[in-house]
Every structure is written in C-alpha cells, then in structure tokens.
Amino acid sequence: MIRIAAVGDIHMGPESQGLLRPAFETLPECADLLLLAGDLTRHGTPEEMRVVAREIQDLAVPVVAVLGNHDHHDDRPDEVTAILRDVGAHVLEGRGTVVESGGSRIGVAGTKGFGGGFVGRCAGEFGEPVMKEFVRYSRRRADALRAALEQLGEEGCDARIALTHYSPSRTRWRANRWRSIRSWAVICWPRRSTRPAPTSRCTGTRTPARNTA
Fold first, then answer.
1. pTM (predicted TM-score)
2. Nearest residue to 136 via CA among 120, 161, 116
3. Which of 98-105's residues contact partners 24+ apart within 8 Å by CB, and which partners?
4. Confidence (pLDDT) at 166
C-alpha cells in the first residue's frame, strides 16, 4: 500500500512560518509522500516561497509540488521554483519524476493546470487571438501531462499520480459552476445593462443580469 499526503491552497505568508511544520513532521507515521498542489503562496513572491521552503525542509518523506495561479502572480515562477528545489522538493511543470519511498517507486507527473477548462466544460479555440492562445496554452499543458504520464508508465513505477492545481473533477465543477457563470456575466455585461446575460455553453442556463439603473 502506498500512502499519499496531499495539500494545496495553503497561501502562506511571512506570518505563517511554523504553522504547518508540526503536522509535516508527523508524516512518516502516516504517509510515504507529500504532494503540494499549488497556491502555496499568496502573491508568488520569493519571500513568501521561502516560508514554504522552511516548512518542508529536511522532511523525512519526499516532497513533490506544482505551482498555482497565486504562485505565478508576481511573474517570478523560475525564482520561486528554485527556492523549493534548493530544499529538495521536486517541482513539476509538464514533466514527471520518480521518487522511491516506503519500498515503492512512485511516478508523479505535474502541471499547474488547465485554465481553459476540461472536456465538456471548456472554452473554445475561436475568436480573438488572446482567446485562442489561452485555449492553446491549456491544450499544451494537457498534452505535456499526458506525455509525462505515458513516460512514467515505461519506467516500472508501482503507481502513477497526476498532480495539478486545477482539479478536473465533477465535484469541483458542480461546486464552482454558478460562481463561474456569474463571473462570466459580470465580465461580459455592464452592471447597468438591462439585456439578459449570455447563455452559458457549459450548462445551457441563463444568469439574470443585475439592473442597477
């Protein structure tokens, strides 16, 4: 049996130092591997990522991480990635790694995620250049994750794990779909508009536009 501990969206800042370390130090009793599923910081600054690095430094189990959208916000992903790698974490973006723990070879492929959505719940590669590039970026991330998982399948791993920040699960979609539709309506239609909000291609439902006139 392979035991996995996973945590994401911890959003650590300077005042968070030491918050998670006591729990992390107990991991050898219950887990063979720690996965960090992105949004490790609030704004993606090196200062914030150094807090995360001190939390995971010299743990007795391997640590594998991906960045999230918050970790990209300061436009320094290479720098914050290096901070994690300096303390021994495997930080993945469109590639895989194999770690050995608990007598098992565990393959992990990771990417930040798919901003364009997932099958059946996705944006289309159509329209303005910026929209098409947005969708193409998501496709490249998905293709890279698939290739990494396929490569891990050839390396004799006892288990393969796909680690992403955005989760392509039905539960996540159901929990967030109304918020997403409302956000789309606000972006596309002025607050004072009396016209109906656009029909969502994802659900076929309409979100009433707010009339504040």
1. 0.78
2. 116
3. 98/152, 98/155, 98/157, 99/33, 99/62, 99/64, 100/62, 101/32, 101/33, 101/61, 101/62, 102/2, 102/3, 102/32, 104/2, 104/32, 104/158, 104/159, 105/155, 105/156, 105/157, 105/158
4. 82
Residue ranges of alpha helices (H) inside 45-195 are: 46-56, 69-72, 77-86, 129-153, 170-188
**Digit-coded pLDDT (tens) for 53-87:** 999 999 999 999 999 999 999 999 999 999 999 99
Per-residue pLDDT tens digits for 114-123: 666 666 667 7
Q: How many residues does the chain have?
A: 213
Has domain 4-168 been given CATH number 3.40.50.800? no
> SS3 for 93-126, per residue?
CCEEEEEEECCEEEEEEEECCCCCEECCEECCCC
Domain boundaries, the chain: 4-168
**Do 173 and 183 meet the contact criterion of CB atoms below 8 Å apart?**
no
How many CA atoms within 13 Å lie on the side-chain side of 57?
12
Q: Which residues pair with 5 in a beta bridge?
A: 34
Comparing CA positions, the residue from 79, 83, 69, 73 lying closest to residue 37 is 69
Residue with tokens 């107990």: 26
Which among 163, 62, 166 is positioned nearest to 115, based on CA atoms?
166
